[in-house]
Amino acid sequence: MGSLLLAFAGMLLLAVLLSSLAHRTILSTAALFLIAGFVLGDGALGVVSLAPGDELVGTLAELALFAVLFTDGMRVGWAELRSAWRLPGRALGWGLPLTLAITAVGAHYLVGLGWIESLLIGAILAPTDPVFAAALVGNEKVPPRLRRLLNVESGVNDGLALPFVMVFLAIAAGSQDLHLGELGLELGLGVVIGVAVPWAAIKLEQTRWFSASTPYEPLNALAIGLLVLALGKATHGNLFLAAFAAGITVATFGERQRESFEHFGELITELFKLAALLVFGALITPALLGSVGWTGWLFAILALVLARPAAIWLSFLGSGLSVREQAAVAWFGPKGFASVVYALIVLSSGIAAAQQVFQLVAVTIVASILLHSSTDIVVARGFDDERDVPAWFGKARRLRGRLPEDGQS
Question: Into how many domains does the chain fold?
Fold first, then answer.
């Protein structure tokens, strides 16, 4: 524990010192923590020694995913979803299940996994993460509708993929461990807690008897999140759906609470993300990377360059997006933090194929982080010339297309 804390503290300081450089170059702090975990883990230096069954691994994965889903939900209140649903709706309603299905087919036929385990891998790898495409999402020269599409999609698809992960994991575990009826009750109870607790807390603050002072305002949403977490633990409701529902409820009914918590919440979530990436990297060893074989690596590459692009191309037929925009959306479906935590959950679940599922997900995430975090700036800069062209030039070019060339009648 002491060595892990020391490693995390040192890496966090290094990430802070390099954060300005990371915003301007292909350097990724997420990739930095993943690589650091790999180098410091048992597969290399052995400074950080962790086993998949360690309580710390499961607890950190649980808290990290809770924090991520809570803040993700806050980014996409019902107002945002209604005003910008057309394009993200295609990516979520069609793109996500198509990505899941294509990935599952690859896992089944390339690697030879059973259909349930293949569908579980598809559900784990379906969500996207804007952290590994930050230069694209944060570049104001990238078309606003494209940035909004990627932001909304990545904010919602973690929560949408979660029920699929839980159901396929429960089936893979066998009926003796968890009945689907019990799973449905657990998921439903999580949603109820996630809606009821923040709604009641916000309504209480809106009465004349209660009011949060300015210094305490950022703690309001934090207290709501902790209460949702505690009630979920006490009642065995699904913590992750509760977190996602709670975030959406705060965003919908408590705009002030969301604004005051936004920066504070993102910092807390970032700490959990980086810690989980360090642990995830420490669990990846050279032996693990080699044990998947060439079929495993082929699956990982195809999951990135075929599954998502094919699903997005089919989903956005007739959408009005340009070819360049569709290509950017198709490529930047990086497998990020939610996939990391889902993989850790599967690894500690005890199902027969847990190790193989984790290995395949691990190599896919490693490939995704290296490929996407090193190409986001390059792709984002591809939009610079297009956005820098003056408006009058575009009008003149269109007018010229309708007139005869010089010297022609």
Answer: 1
Asked if residue 253 belongs to a domain, the reply is yes
Q: What are the pLDDT digits (tens) for 317-345?
A: 888 888 888 888 887 766 667 787 788 88
Identify whether 401 is part of a domain: no
Which residue do the tokens 């998921």 mark? 187
| Residue 158 belongs to a domain | yes
* Span 115-130, pLDDT tens digits: 999 999 999 998 876 5
CA distance 204 to 348: 39
CATH of the domain at 332: 1.20.1530.20
Look at residue 43 and tell me if it is in a domain.
no
Q: What is the pLDDT of residues 234-256, one digit of tens each?
A: 998 888 889 888 998 998 888 88
